[in-house]
Amino acid sequence: MASEELAQKLQRRLQLEESGAAAAGGDHAAAGGPEPEEEAAARNSLTGSAGAELSAKLSRRQDINEGAAQPRRAAVFNPYTEFKEFSRRQIKDMERMFRLYDSGRDGYIDLMELKLMMEKLGAPQTHLGLKNMIKEVDEDFDGKLSFRE
């Protein structure tokens, strides 16, 4: 689903760039002169970087889906700056819940801990379902869930 969303965003971005370039070319031609080089360079650098960024994210997502991606680790993990959509209180509550279900106290929730967690929450899952849940969010391909993931 994420790769489809990125593909749609990339497609929309490309369509906007094409329509913007066509409109800008028509405006400058109507004004009686060519587009200034500084404006063209600035617009190309902005749209080029956005297109390149979306393209890189889409490629990374496809590699992950195919199982060919190399794991990446964040140098420093700060949940308060990385997850700005949550308040500090919400993050602290999530950390507390994570530690509650991390019975091995190793900083990860593995398959059996996830199984116990789902049973305690009243939504037991099959092993295959649990493995799929982990696979969906496991960024470093270690088969376990860290708090960041």
UniProtKB/TrEMBL annotation:
<protein>
    <submittedName>
        <fullName>EFHD1 protein</fullName>
    </submittedName>
</protein>
<feature type="region of interest" description="Disordered">
    <location>
        <begin position="1"/>
        <end position="50"/>
    </location>
</feature>
<feature type="domain" description="EF-hand">
    <location>
        <begin position="89"/>
        <end position="124"/>
    </location>
</feature>
<feature type="compositionally biased region" description="Low complexity">
    <location>
        <begin position="17"/>
        <end position="34"/>
    </location>
</feature>
<keyword id="KW-0677">Repeat</keyword>
<feature type="domain" description="EF-hand">
    <location>
        <begin position="125"/>
        <end position="149"/>
    </location>
</feature>
<keyword id="KW-0106">Calcium</keyword>
<dbReference type="GO" id="GO:0005743">
    <property type="term" value="C:mitochondrial inner membrane"/>
</dbReference>
<dbReference type="Pfam" id="PF13499">
    <property type="entry name" value="EF-hand_7"/>
</dbReference>
<dbReference type="GO" id="GO:0005509">
    <property type="term" value="F:calcium ion binding"/>
</dbReference>
<dbReference type="InterPro" id="IPR011992">
    <property type="entry name" value="EF-hand-dom_pair"/>
</dbReference>
<dbReference type="InterPro" id="IPR040365">
    <property type="entry name" value="EFHD1/2"/>
</dbReference>
<dbReference type="InterPro" id="IPR002048">
    <property type="entry name" value="EF_hand_dom"/>
</dbReference>
<dbReference type="GO" id="GO:0061891">
    <property type="term" value="F:calcium ion sensor activity"/>
</dbReference>
<keyword id="KW-0479">Metal-binding</keyword>
